[in-house]
Design brief:
- The protein is of the alpha/beta class.
- The chain has two domains: 2-154, 2-Layer Sandwich (Nucleotidyltransferase, domain 5); 202-383, Nucleotidyltransferase, domain 5.
- The protein is 39% helix and 20% strand.
- It has helices at residues 63-75, 110-118, 127-140, 160-163, 169-175, 184-198, 250-260, 264-273, 276-281, 287-295, 299-323, 333-338, 340-348, 359-363, 387-400; strands at 2-8, 13-20, 26-35, 42-48, 54-58, 90-95, 106-107, 146-150, 206-212, 216-222, 225-229, 328-332, 368-370, 379-383.
- The strands form two sheets. Strands 5-4-3-2-1-6-8-7 form an eight-stranded mixed sheet, with helices on both faces. A six-stranded mixed sheet has the order 11-10-9-12-14-13, with helices on both faces.
- Helix 1 (63-75) crosses helix 3, helix 10 (287-295) packs across helix 11 and helix 11 packs across helix 13.
- The structure holds adenosine-5'-diphosphate (ADP).
Length: 401
């Protein structure tokens, strides 16, 4: 089955075209990114597997035009990997927020769209863009089935004590205010891969998954199910991230709003877009930039990494406590996969768990690797995440039925 996986942002479309022979046997045919939708200098970056990236700059007024460009690139006589649009059997979309409506992926129909629309309030930056993507595909490929996979679905197994805030109960009843988590496809994927790699029975295991990227979250996975996660009502809660502040005393929010005369929307922007690595360093949200600065002795960049490490150490500790133990700790995503020194720093602070790092394995880790020594009491792994594969598998499973 040829499956197109789409991740629509407010001004971007990320895509992968996969040939799924089965859930286990698949190949990536092409991938790419459309950026700056709505601006005169829109860009399409398209990479066919095994070939160099091709870039095209042009005005891309909206998502339907962007989606048409993606499909045209896929069937292009030179750049293309399929003969015609008809070769695409199904399309899978990543959706950030499905609230408590969805505990798994779903085939797109009117009811599903209404629920995603309802959830726009909880993910105003993401869900409206995902809907644009769904409608763009409906316009360009009207007869192709579409599936939606939710970042929140994996966390629907959390119990009320983990998902409720200690706010007046009616806010939950009236406005569905509770913790939903995010990055679910990644936490689910790496916990499954990690259990296999470490020789654990997933159904009888305690795993902590650390997805550390531009957005970051840590999840406690007990017996294959999410029992707690650091993101909450929105992806703002939890640890320090590229541009998000993570946890702060909620009174700080109202205090700053009064001091700086900010509206709720302006304060939301400060916390989501101007905080985290960017806010603390005053320079960049990107870990690579900050690493270069920290190496030169920049105190603010060093503070960013010190806080990041402390947040990871504290969350791991709280999830060890919550699950009454841990068998396996997994690092994934942009920073978790690529920053060996950060993994080693964190693990050296977990000696109370009897963790011993295999420094050589850690330093050269690529793909899927155990980075703890054989006598370490808790196993540790680095696993490259693959959210698109999870979406493609769910799309295949649901559309084959
Ligand atoms: P997103 O949440 O946007 O998917 P990613 O998981 O791609 O983000 O993570 C982006 C972060 O990972 C950035 O801070 C980036 O600097 C960092 N990163 C990516 N590649 C590397 C690398 N090779 N070395 C160090 N950091 C990296």
């Amino acid at each position: 089955m040829i499956i197109l996986v789409i991740n629509c942002g407010s001004s971007s479309i990320k895509y992968q075209l996969l040939d799924m022979k089965s859930e286990e046997s698949y190949s990536l045919l092409a991938k790419g990114l459309v950026e700056k939708i709505g601006l005169p200098d829109g860009v399409l970056n398209h990479t066919v597997t095994g070939r160099d990236k091709v870039s095209k700059v042009m005005a891309i007024p909206d998502h339907t035009v962007g989606m048409k460009l993606v499909l045209d690139a896929l069937v292009d006589p030179e750049l293309g990997v399929i003969k015609s649009f008809n070769d695409i059997d199904a399309v899978g979309h990543r959706i950030v927020q499905g609230a408590d409506f969805f505990s798994g992926s779903a085939i797109v129909n009117e009811d599903v769209i209404k629920k995603i629309e309802f959830c726009c309030d909880f993910a105003p930056l993401h869900n409206p863009a995902h809907l644009l993507g769904i409608h763009a595909i409906s316009n360009v490929l009207p007869s192709v089935p579409q599936v939606v996979t939710f970042d929140t679905a994996f966390h629907q197994t959390m119990a009320p004590d983990a998902y409720m805030y200690a706010l007046p109960y009616e806010y939950y009843e009236n406005y569905r205010v509770r913790r939903y988590g995010a990055h679910g496809t990644s936490h689910e994927y790496v916990s499954q891969r990690g259990a296999k790699l470490a020789g654990l029975d997933l159904g009888n295991s305690k795993i902590i998954t650390c997805h550390i990227g531009n957005g970051s979250s840590i999840t406690a996975v007990k017996n294959g199910k999410s029992v707690d996660t650091s993101m909450g009502f929105t992806p703002l809660e939890g640890m320090i991230m590229g541009t998000r502040c993570g946890n702060v005393d909620p009174n700080v929010v109202t205090y700053i709003m009064k001091k700086e005369n900010l509206t709720p929307d302006q304060m939301t922007t400060v916390m989501n877009k101007k905080s985290g690595f960017l806010g603390l360093s005053g320079v960049s949200s990107d870990a690579r930039d900050l690493e270069a600065l920290a190496d030169k002795g920049d105190e603010k960049a060093k503070l960013v990494f010190a806080k990041l490490e402390l947040d990871i150490v504290k969350l791991i500790g709280s999830y060890v406590a919550e699950m009454d133990g841990v068998d396996l700790i997994i690092f994934t995503a942009g920073i978790g996969e690529n920053n060996a020194w950060l993994r080693e720093d964190v693990l050296k602070r977990l000696t109370y768990l009897g963790i011993k790092v295999d420094s050589a394995a850690n330093a050269s880790a690529k793909g899927e690797v155990i980075i703890s020594t054989p006598d370490s009491k808790v196993k540790v792994a680095m696993i490259s995440t693959n959210e698109e594969l999870v979406i493609a598998r769910d799309t295949m499973r649901l559309t084959k039925k």
